[in-house]
Amino acid sequence: MLPLDLTKEFPATANAVYMDVANQGLISRTTWASIEPHLDNRLHGRNDEESMLEHVERTRTRFAQFINSDQSEIAITKNASEGINIIANAFDWRPGDNVVLCPKLEHANNILPWLQVKDRHNVELRVVEPDNGSIPPDAVVKAIDSRTRIVALATVTMVPGFRTVLEPISEACRHYGAFLLADATQSVGILHTDVAQLGIDGLAVSTVKGLMGLYGSGFLYCRQEWADRLNPAYLARFSVDLGNAPESAPVPSSVKLRRGAPRFDVGHYNFPGMLAAYASMGQLLEIGTAAIERSVTSLTKRLASGFLELGLPVCGGPPGRHTGSIVALGDTSALVGGRPVDDRIHSLHEHFTNNQVIVSARRGMLRFSLHLYNTDDEVDRVIDLAKIWLKQQK
Ligand SMILES: Cc1ncc(COP(=O)(O)O)c(C=O)c1O
């Protein structure tokens, strides 16, 4: 059992089963309360900018701690796509370079930046086809060669929400000197993430899902050796080393970039977003990310097995290595646009909504995405509701 009073911290769970973190996470009461003093300062004209900037640095350190990196490897961003775009535009592309990705399983925000790189710099996109709902590591490895500059993939896909096996890909990237960029929007905060262990070079995240934070707030991890070599597409005061000069000091004639990933920071920060992320990560770290992962994956395995016993089409079949915090119902061919969405998926979605189970439909699949606030009882309730729906279909 997790050491939190769930209904007190997450009032949304009192009257509904919330299994929709892959869409939008819940914030806790603690997180909600963490923002108020700053808003109060703004309301009363008390300028807290200096202390807020110090707080941003504490949040940066906490982001780093959260994924086992160093604060000099963290840039503060608005969301995952900003992080992905920062990396995409910091490379000195040469015609004939290539980027490896699996677009059929990626979110649009991890496809569009690469289409732009392709058009602007005559770079080849090496498209890997999904294998039964997964990004196949062997096919990704096979696509990598000495002209591969970046491999961009989700740690966990938006749908069907399978984990990507990263180790062989990271090994191939190291061998060829390619940059492994992970879109970790669907995993950080829910599944334990250690960038050193995973061998990732970059990781882009928003705080709105597993990190239980606000919209318009995220971070980018960029391994120090890479960050020091990369050139930001945009510059502003917080991208450069100001030494002891105040932010308002005249701009020197030559630019000295900040060391590491903070060079990718641009203008002023989203202070409420940073306050929220600091507070929510505090709660997540107190429980422990490994413990959260254990709890959540045990719930998703229970949910997938329960659905399978009822004969429902669990994407990927029985739980296995691919199972993380998401269970999806539906046909994989609908997922890649090969088939129209099954009416039964609509009907089941409606049935759950009418019974206060909050889930979302994506690409023809019904997606159940879980976090630390979900429980065994909720999983059993969802399975019971599915049973009732099946009876109604007869
Ligand atoms: C895998 C993945 N990447 C990115 C996003 C969104 O990107 P951003 O945070 O930039 O809005 C989502 C969902 O909203 C997602 O599921």
From TrEMBL:
Name of this chain's protein: Cysteine desulfurase
UniProt keyword terms in alphabetical order: Pyridoxal phosphate
InterPro entries with a match to the protein in the record: Aminotrans_V_dom (IPR000192), PyrdxlP-dep_Trfase (IPR015424), PyrdxlP-dep_Trfase_major (IPR015421), PyrdxlP-dep_Trfase_small (IPR015422)
Species of provenance: Phyllobacterium sophorae
Native organism taxonomy: Bacteria, Pseudomonadati, Pseudomonadota, Alphaproteobacteria, Hyphomicrobiales
Keyword Phosphoprotein assigned: no
Domain Aminotransferase class V: 52-382
One Pfam short name: Aminotran_5
